[in-house]
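User: Before I run my own analysis I want an independent prediction to cross-check against. Here's the chain; please return only the structure tokens and, at the end, one sentence I can use as a sanity check.
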Amino acid sequence: MKTNVINLKNETVGEIELSDEVFGLPLRTDILHRMVQWQLAKRRAGTHKTKGISEISGTTKKPWRQKGTGRARQGSLRSPQFRGGARIFGPVVRSHAHDLTKKVRKLALKTALSTKVAEGKLLVLDAATAETHKTKALAAQFKALNLTSVLIIDGANLDEKFVLAARNIPLVDVLPEQGANVYDILRRDTLVLTRNAVEQLEARLK
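Assistant: Structure tokens:
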């Protein structure tokens, strides 16, 4: 399929052919859901933890004798039923990551790109470059393009001035092509790809 290529002044500067193999897949919410869950699980720290009975500071003395008091038998004041005692089956330090095959991850990224095309929320930029690192000029250009919530994906090498200018604008993310991922694509309303990004994504995903 063909789509127009624009510049930051909102002028059409050409056309580009988008591969149906990468940008023309049907919507698969199940695949997208699995991929987002995989990404979010993988980035969890998993450092939350509670103390077991062996980690609680305190005496090891038996609180009272086994029989004859009329009370329930107890072996330790550090047991979970006492104030300040241990916690049973509490969280432990662990990794929340789980496996997801490369084939599914690749399909999910292609599906996310295709979804933006189908929704009419994909723009192709000639180049993501800025003359200055100041935010004001770039923010005005984004406003003219009606870009409020946007992910911009450029080629392998980002323009430093463009990145500096864009990072202070709310709801605007800039990533290199190798950082393109399903979660970031879906969390922003509009996806903007440069010519370089389109070529490199197609080469990677075909």
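Sanity check: The CA atoms of residues 52 and 86 lie 5 Å apart.
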